[in-house]
Specification:
By secondary structure, the protein is of the alpha+beta class. It is 40% helix and 18% strand. It is built from nine helices and nine strands. The chain has helices spanning 110-126, 149-169, 188-199, 207-213, 218-229, 233-251, 256-262, 268-279, 283-294, and strands at residues 16-24, 30-34, 39-46, 48-53, 56-60, 64-68, 74-79, 85-92, 105-107. It has a five-stranded antiparallel beta sheet with strand order 1-8-3-6-9, covered by helices on one side. Helix 6 (233-251) packs across helix 8. The longest helix is centred in the middle third of the chain and has 21 residues, at 149-169. The chain is elongated. The chain starts with 15 loop residues before the first strand and ends in a 7-residue tail after the last helix.
Length: 301
């Protein structure tokens, strides 16, 4: 057998890291501002901060982050009575997808805050320079860096940026995951309808609406899905929604109410009943079971 490799594209690549800092400022701290030819983001871990850029003034609270494109002027000032803790990371990245971050104030999810924590931990493994010096312009590497720490630092930063882009654009979510993948259907008409359902996964659908949008008779539509999947099209769509909800629960970026709203359910109670009916577990039971599995010790090879 002649194996052939697959070339994988790299949509986002960090070329250089300039600074990784975790600052514990006084509540009267003020930085007069700068601009430089690489990216930077500032994330509040405690308290509040006022950031002024070329595009205006922004107040950031805990877990909120602002990105500065290359050559964008930015200042930082403590806001409020609480002395703020601020994470500042600057890096070089020419990937086109970085355009997503321009002129945006975002909020890191719990998962993303966890990745950010790993970045700070690896930075402490890599650099002898203190991470709390706001005027340090070049970080000095340690002589005894643990194996892989420098690579992990870059990978974690790339993972963080990719995770944010995917979460905010929702482009990564595959609503027809699992046994309802349209690729499993041998019928082109069925595949087209599944694709249509996937595109409208956040809506409430009716048989008449699906029939009209796909130019197919109601009876023919039902027969198509019963022959292929042994269920009607609405039941099929309901399973797609719950499969999608399971994926969102596993990714841990939304709570149950947010997932219910995102998928177009009329209430969290209706969502929970549908989830229990189709999966045999409540959303809480499902989340707990996944968490328990993920925390099991991995067998040694």
């Amino acid at each position: 057998m002649a194996y052939q490799s697959v070339q994988l594209d790299s949509e986002l690549s960090i070329e250089k890291i300039y600074t990784i800092h975790y600052y514990e400022y006084q509540n009267d701290f003020y930085f007069s501002g700068e601009r430089h030819n690489f990216w930077e983001f500032q994330c509040v871990d405690k308290g509040s901060a006022e950031i002024v850029t070329d595009n205006g003034s922004h107040i950031l609270n805990r877990s909120q982050v602002i990105f500065h494109r290359p050559n964008e002027f930015h200042t930082l000032k403590a806001a409020g009575r609480t002395a703020p803790n601020i994470i500042v990371i600057s890096f070089s990245c020419d990937s086109p997808c970085m355009n997503f971050f321009e002129n945006k104030v975002l909020e890191f999810s719990d998962t993303e805050c966890g990745i950010l924590g790993r970045i700070i931990a690896e930075a402490r493994n890599c650099f002898v320079s203190p991470l709390d010096n706001p005027y340090l312009e070049k970080m000095e590497k340690k002589n005894d860096i643990p194996f892989g720490a420098q690579k992990l630092l870059t990978l974690y930063l790339e993972e963080l940026l990719i995770h944010v882009i995917r979460r905010y654009t929702m482009a990564h979510y595959s609503a027809s995951a699992g046994i309802y993948d349209s690729c499993q259907s041998t019928s082109e008409a069925c595949r087209n309808i599944i694709h249509y359902l996937e595109q409208h996964i956040r809506e409430s659908m009716t048989i008449d609406g699906i029939s009209k949008s796909n130019i197919i008779g109601r009876s023919q539509l039902q027969k198509l899905f019963r022959d292929q999947y042994q269920c009607g099209v609405i039941e099929f769509f309901s399973h797609m929604k719950i499969d999608f909800a399971k994926q969102l629960i596993r990714e841990n970026d939304m709570n149950f109410t947010q997932i219910s709203d995102f998928l177009g359910y009329s209430s969290i109670h209706y969502f929970s009943r549908q989830f229990k009916k189709l999966s045999g577990m409540t959303p809480t039971e499902y989340a707990t079971s996944i968490k328990a599995i993920s925390e099991l010790p991995q067998p040694h090879s």
